[in-house]
Amino acid sequence: MTTLFIAGATGLVGGQALALALADARVTRVIAPTRRPLPVHVRLENPRLDALVADVAPEGWRADGAICALGTTRKTAGSDAAFRAVDHDLVLAVAQRLRGAGVTRFALVSSLGADSRSRVLYTRTKGDVEEAIGRLAFPSLTILRPGFLDGERAEYRPFERVAGTLLRLAGPLLPRSARVSPVSSVARLAVEAAIEGAMGARIVGSAEIGQG
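Above: the chain sequence. Below: its structure as tokens.
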């Protein structure tokens, strides 16, 4: 029986991962720290994220496997520095706390094009944090690099809605790596990696995610 830790459970991928985990008979307990409260569930622990990160004790971080689906956008964050504070600094801090508490299986939701040498802030930040987490030496590390996420966000983003529609229409003409990534597939792969991820590090690209 498994205890899962999910960071980013109010987001698009994290929310679906949480629902899958709570419905999974293999999972007996889910720890999902958030800034705003989640609906109560008998198997869910929902501490405040900022308080948990500030606490150096390992007790609140102990789990068998973990998923990190934290992330924001440059527009939402308001500046380059504020964006990096979430997508790099906070993500890395969560990974460090989990590794220090003995977590052995870690699934990171990253992005297509993640590259620490990229000139684009978003993909460079994703690449930087992937490399930093790789150095933590989780026995089982799965990095998911989805393309454009196909799912219904609580936050209305008109540009993304139009882009998603166009990509879905053009899907049959595009290479698999350029097609939309179903959020349900990303969440399912993350949960499986956190519960039964094989030893070693692997990257799951958008082409593979699209087949899920």
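Confidence is low (pLDDT under 50) at residues 159-175.
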